[in-house]
Write a sequence for this structure.
């Protein structure tokens, strides 16, 4: 009978021990699961937050890039507009450019004179001072024209205004065919670009013909 009681007591003790072990395992398991879940949630949240932050960063970066490009485009356009305005060569006080002048020819005040008119077609005021370069062309070749002794005035042309210079030449009264110049190449003062206008100038063929053709400065006698 003692052996039976001991066996029962032992069994009860073993059962109790097993029960306690089971409880401890459950507690540890629960405790382990909870931190694991919490860490997992934190990582998930952190990942989600990081993704959101990355998305926000991308959006901000895109917006910033767009804004910068927009500003750059605007600056470029402003610069382009200004360049265009500067390219017209019509800034107030600037030298008159050949590209912004129209040319025409008319009779002078006396015989043996031709007026070459130059009109400012630019948008702003421009200035000229000095003698134009003049070359006369005929079927015999080209003749450069000498300057007269007339003093050069300062000329200021507002948009649409006109100035002129006078070409002097000896008339052909010899009865011979002489030499006829059919075009005049004009280079405004302080310019390198020329403009050609049609003319009809008949001069006698003499040794002094070349030196007898002269040009006055722009604006003289205006």
């Amino acid at each position: 009978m003692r052996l039976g009681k001991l066996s029962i007591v032992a069994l009860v003790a073993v059962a109790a021990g097993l029960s306690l072990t089971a409880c401890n395992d459950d507690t540890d398991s629960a405790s382990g699961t909870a931190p694991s879940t919490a860490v997992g949630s934190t990582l998930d949240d952190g990942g989600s937050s990081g993704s959101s932050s990355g998305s926000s960063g991308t959006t901000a970066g895109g917006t910033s890039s767009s804004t910068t490009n927009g500003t750059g485009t605007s600056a470029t356009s402003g610069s382009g507009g200004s360049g265009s305005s500067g390219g017209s060569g019509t800034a107030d006080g600037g030298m008159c450019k050949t590209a912004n002048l129209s040319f025409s020819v008319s009779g002078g005040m006396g015989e043996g004179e031709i007026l070459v008119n130059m009109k400012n077609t630019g948008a702003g005021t421009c200035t000229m001072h000095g003698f134009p370069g003049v070359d006369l062309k005929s079927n015999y070749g080209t003749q450069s024209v000498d300057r007269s002794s007339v003093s050069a005035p300062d000329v200021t042309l507002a948009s649409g205004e006109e100035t002129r210079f006078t070409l002097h030449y000896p008339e052909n009264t010899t009865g011979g065919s002489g030499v006829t110049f059919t075009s005049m190449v004009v280079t405004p003062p302080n310019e390198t670009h020329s403009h050609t206008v049609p003319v009809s100038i008949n001069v006698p063929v003499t040794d002094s013909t070349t030196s007898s053709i002269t040009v006055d400065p722009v604006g003289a006698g205006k």
In short: The mean pLDDT is 71. The longest strand covers residues 179-187.
